[in-house]
């Protein structure tokens, strides 16, 4: 299976904002963005190699591409899978951008993370792939599986990484479309996610414009 081999902190530096990929570290003073605000690379990727050293203006395509890259990095998925999700969103009724965010949020690995059972989506993905998560009492080891209203998500083992994540998540708010019992390590999907209730640093309209070209 293909994997993204970049340093996750480097990805946040590239986007110049926290993508919360590293888990608890992102909420602490150890976060790389607390120390470095420039992008990785020569001169922070700010100056173009043009005559006279003038700053290169980012094109409309470049802005749209950056937004797509940011979405892929937040949810930890690669190009082919992201494209597949987008075209599925475009076939559904409603606004394509909102459909896209809703499909991304309904992924099982994201739901495990949102419930507070994992400190990051990457950790949540590992829990799912190792068969430690059940949906309606059936083992599901595919991170991209989509949950639906009424689904019950349960962790099979009380691992240390789960305990640590739960303690940290108690300090933060949980999306209203999910409910969790931290003692029993059980979560439930109460409703489908709504875009206006999700605090995600994405402008999905730019992604739609990119794929519409």
Q: Report on the biggest sheet.
A: 5 strands, antiparallel
Distance between the termini: 29 Å
Low-confidence stretches: 45-51
Instruction: Estimate percent helicity.
Output: 25-40%
Radius of gyration: 18 Å
Please give the order of strands in the largest beta sheet. Answer: 2-1-3-5-4
Helical region count? Answer: 8
What does the overall shape look like? globular
Average residue pLDDT: 83
Q: State the order of secondary-structure elements, H for helix, E for strand.
A: HHHHHHEEEHEEH
Percent of sequence in beta strands:
5-15%
Description:
The protein is an alpha+beta fold and 213 residues long. It is 38% helix and 8% strand. It is built from eight helices and five strands, in the order ααααααβββαββα. It has helices at residues 8-15, 60-75, 79-91, 96-105, 108-115, 121-129, 160-169, 204-211; strands at residues 133-135, 138-139, 152-155, 178-181, 186-189. It has a five-stranded antiparallel beta sheet. It is globular, with a radius of gyration of 18 Å.
């Amino acid at each position: 299976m293909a994997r993204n081999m970049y340093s996750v902190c480097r990805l946040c530096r590239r986007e110049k904002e926290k993508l919360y990929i590293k888990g608890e570290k992102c909420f602490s003073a150890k976060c790389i963005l607390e120390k470095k605000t420039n992008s990785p690379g020569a001169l922070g990727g700010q100056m173009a190699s043009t005559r006279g050293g003038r700053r290169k203006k980012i094109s409309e395509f470049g802005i749209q591409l950056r937004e797509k890259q940011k979405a892929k990095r937040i949810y930890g998925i690669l190009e082919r899978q992201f494209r597949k999700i987008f075209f599925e969103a475009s076939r559904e009724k409603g606004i394509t951008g909102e459909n896209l965010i809703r499909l991304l949020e309904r992924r099982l690995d994201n739901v495990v993370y949102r419930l507070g059972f994992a400190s990051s989506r990457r950790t949540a993905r590992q829990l799912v792939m190792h068969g430690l998560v059940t949906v309606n009492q059936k083992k599901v080891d595919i991170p991209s599986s989509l949950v639906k209203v009424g689904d019950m998500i349960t962790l099979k083992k009380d691992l240390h990484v789960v305990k640590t994540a739960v303690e940290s998540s108690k300090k933060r708010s949980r999306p209203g479309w999910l409910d969790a019992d931290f003692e029993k390590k059980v979560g439930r999907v109460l409703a489908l996610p709504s875009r206006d209730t999700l605090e995600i640093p994405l402008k999905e309209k730019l992604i739609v414009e990119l794929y519409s070209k």
